[in-house]
C-alpha cells in the first residue's frame, strides 16, 4: 500500500487517526481506556487505501476487531473492503505491519465475543440494537522473510 491512505470521513475518527499517526501511536492508542489500532483496507470499488481506527483485543498473536458500526443494521464499509481484499496494513502503537484479516468462524466467535465485550462493553448494547450478527474479525500478521 504505497499510496497515502484516505482516512475515515467521520470527523472524530479522522482526528483520532491524525493524532495517532502524527505521534507514532503515542496519542490515540488508548481511546476511553480501550486499545485501538489503525487498519488500512483497499476500497473494493475505488482500489484506494482507506484507513480507520478500531478498538482491538488479542487472542494469542492475533488481533481482534469488531465490525459493530455502532449497532447499525449494515456492516461498516471497512468490513466490505476487507472481505473483498483480506490483505490489510495495521498500525498498533508505533508498529506498522502487513496482515491478513478474516471473519471469526462460528465455533470461535462466542469466546472471542466475550473477549471483546470485556474490553468494550458497548458492543453488547450495539448487538441488541440490530438484527444482524455483529462480526468479529481476526487479523493475523503476515510473516516477513528473514533477510539472513
What does this structure look like?
By secondary structure, this protein is α+β, with helices and mostly antiparallel strands. It has four helices and eight strands, in the order βαββββαββααβ. It has helices at 11-22, 77-84, 106-119, 122-129, and strands at 6-7, 30-31, 34-42, 49-59, 62-66, 87-92, 95-103, 136-141. A six-stranded antiparallel β-barrel has the order 3-4-5-8-7-6. β4 and β5 form a beta hairpin. The relative contact order is 0.19.
Overall mean pLDDT: 94
Helicity, as a percent range: 25-40%
Alpha-beta content class? alpha+beta
Q: Give the overall form.
A: globular
- Give the ordered list of helices and strands: EHEEEEHEEHHE
Termini separation comes to 25 Å
Can you list the strand order of the major beta sheet? 3-4-5-8-7-6
Q: What's the Cα radius of gyration?
A: 15 Å
Largest sheet: 6 strands, antiparallel, barrel
So how many helices?
4
Topology, number of strands:
8
Taken as a percent bin, the fraction of beta residues is 25-35%
Question: pLDDT below 50 for ≥5 consecutive residues: which ranges?
Answer: none
Amino acid at each position: 500500500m504505497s499510496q497515502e491512505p484516505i482516512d475515515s470521513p467521520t470527523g472524530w475518527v479522522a482526528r483520532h487517526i491524525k493524532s495517532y499517526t502524527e505521534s507514532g501511536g503515542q496519542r490515540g492508542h488508548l481511546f476511553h481506556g480501550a486499545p485501538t489500532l489503525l487498519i488500512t483496507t483497499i476500497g473494493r470499488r475505488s482500489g484506494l487505501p482507506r484507513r480507520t481506527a478500531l478498538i482491538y483485543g488479542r487472542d494469542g498473536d492475533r488481533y481482534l476487531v469488531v465490525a459493530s458500526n455502532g449497532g447499525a443494521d449494515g456492516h461498516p464499509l471497512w468490513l466490505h473492503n476487507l472481505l473483498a481484499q483480506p490483505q490489510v496494513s495495521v498500525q498498533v502503537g508505533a508498529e506498522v505491519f502487513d496482515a491478513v484479516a478474516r471473519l471469526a468462524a462460528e465455533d470461535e466467535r462466542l469466546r472471542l465475543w466475550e473477549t471483546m465485550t470485556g474490553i468494550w462493553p458497548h458492543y453488547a448494547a450495539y448487538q441488541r440494537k440490530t438484527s444482524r450478527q455483529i462480526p468479529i474479525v481476526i487479523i493475523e500478521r503476515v510473516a516477513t522473510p528473514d533477510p539472513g
